[in-house]
């Protein structure tokens, strides 16, 4: 893939990030951070500059789409845009309009685009199945007394559960299908839900998403980082017909997803065990302190991650998110 094609795909993904019209400074800052981190990699397009071009409307979606001539590149750009739009749940009307326009601009094969849309919808349904629907309230306003809680399962079992989720999400990074990365967040939601329940706290989707954001793991930004690492790591080799070349950056993406999931699980365990008294600053500091050691753990568990990747299929992933 040429640098120009990379730049166009990143541009389209950033347009997708802002398609819902929500001007959230925290999301912008997170995207800016990701853009800068990817810009520091050798051979990467100047993502920080692309971010500014999109934000300041110095580039158009039409121009970015027209710059992609390869059918595989165009399909991949659309799939990444869908991933970003689906990051926080079902698409809003503005996101739907954006994706409809994008399909037209990219001149996609209708059958191929429809097939991916179906897969993406299934993943969104997984996220909704991972925990009860959101209820009114906030992270600090969950019902029940705020007291330290002992889990109703052994600590060793909780640790094993967290590790298993981390192994699975690491394995998802090794799969070529775009939906694979989309399944990571629903699985993280399912994990946090299970940890809360083990401590006697019934969580809903709204609380879990707020908790994940408070820890510092943004939903939209997480998708952007995952796809950015895949893109710049050489995943795309041959894209036409979903035939991918050797994954050059798989280890980096795998470590990111394994570590993010493991650290998130451990923070959730401490948070609910403490009676939910950790501040946002403490949550973020704890998460960051656990992240680097978790990345080192990934090397130890690499054989298990590869073994899982060799046997994963869509049906199994869907069953796990539903808790089956």
Query: Helical region count?
Result: 16
Helix content class? 55-70%
Instruction: Write down how many β-strands occur, each being a DSSP E stretch of 2 or more residues.
Output: 0
Biggest pleated-sheet summary: none
Question: What is the overall silhouette?
Answer: globular
Distance between the termini: 40 Å
Point out poorly predicted stretches.
140-146, 234-252
- How many domain units? 2
Based on secondary structure, the structural category is mainly alpha
Strand content: under 5%
Q: Give Rg in angstroms.
A: 19 Å
Mean pLDDT: 75
Order of helices and strands: HHHHHHHHHHHHHHHH
Gist of the model:
By secondary structure, the protein is mainly α. Helix content is 68%, strand content 0%. The protein has 16 helices and no strands.
Task: Walk me through the structure.
The chain is mainly alpha-helical. It contains 16 helices and no strands.
Topology, please?
Elements: H1 3-17, H2 25-39, H3 47-55, H4 61-66, H5 71-85, H6 93-106, H7 110-129, H8 155-172, H9 178-182, H10 184-198, H11 205-215, H12 219-232, H13 250-273, H14 280-300, H15 302-311, H16 314-321
Key attributes of the depicted protein:
2 domains, 324 residues, single chain, TerB-like, mainly alpha, 16 helices, 68% helix
